[in-house]
Amino acid sequence: MNIALVMGCARSGTSILGELIGAHPEVKYKHEAHAAWNKAGLGENESHRLTAQHATPKVARQIRKRFELEKGNAKLFAEKCPRSVLRIPFIREIFPEAKLIHIIRDGRDAACSMLPGVGGSEWRHLKPPNWQQLFQEERGIMRCVQAWKSIMEIALHDLSGVPHLTLKYEDLVANPQQLAAEILRFLELPEHPEVLAFCKKIQNQTADSYQAQKQAKWFRDDHQVRVGRWRENLPNGEARAVEDLLRPLLIKLGYQAESLNQRVIESL
User: Fold this and answer.
1) Which domain range does residue 73 map to?
2) How many domains does the chain fold into?
3) Nearest-CA neighbor of 259 among 230, 250, 21, 247?
4) Which of 1, 93, 7, 110 minimizes the C-alpha distance to 50?
């Protein structure tokens, strides 16, 4: 089956990336096929973490059949779901032929964007195995940061040695047409004017900008730009705590970790 799966931590650009791919006329696109994936149930601690053991023959048949019906006569079926980043071994058992695309966003920005869905009285985004502990012991931005860290560590471990395309949200926002061309090459699709037209919707400024479908409910009008929004959202004390926790992982992913002193100087 010709299938592409878009994944990444919640609030990392999976929706806008999925819509970009779905703009191609040869693609049948599905937003979060939970009805199909849920055939396997939940993982450890009622999380969304699934392993190869969850891919029983019955579950595999049911999910493949559902996606094949969804694909129809399209050249490629593409689905995006943040939860998939916690179930790479499971997915590889069911769809060994799948083209995997992993989108990464600066954890400081992702955590700020996750706040409405994870930081309060409910947990409404993907759940790593330690989500219940985090829900009890943390709150607010630090809960979101810890969740992002846990999710990313699992994703990076599971994708190691697995063929896939890794993209950065920041690159997608800065150069959508360039990234679109790279994505289409990876998916073995020809470039198309409708994809290029969709690229024009992707922008860093938040004012009067396009919101990915079904994601507007998470948007908060508390920042002017998407890339580096943490500078607007996090007071110095929170920013330092967040960076102290994430610095090694941010550096590993190629992000610039800033000292508190540097940030203070730049604000003068």
Assistant:
1) 3-267
2) 1
3) 247
4) 93
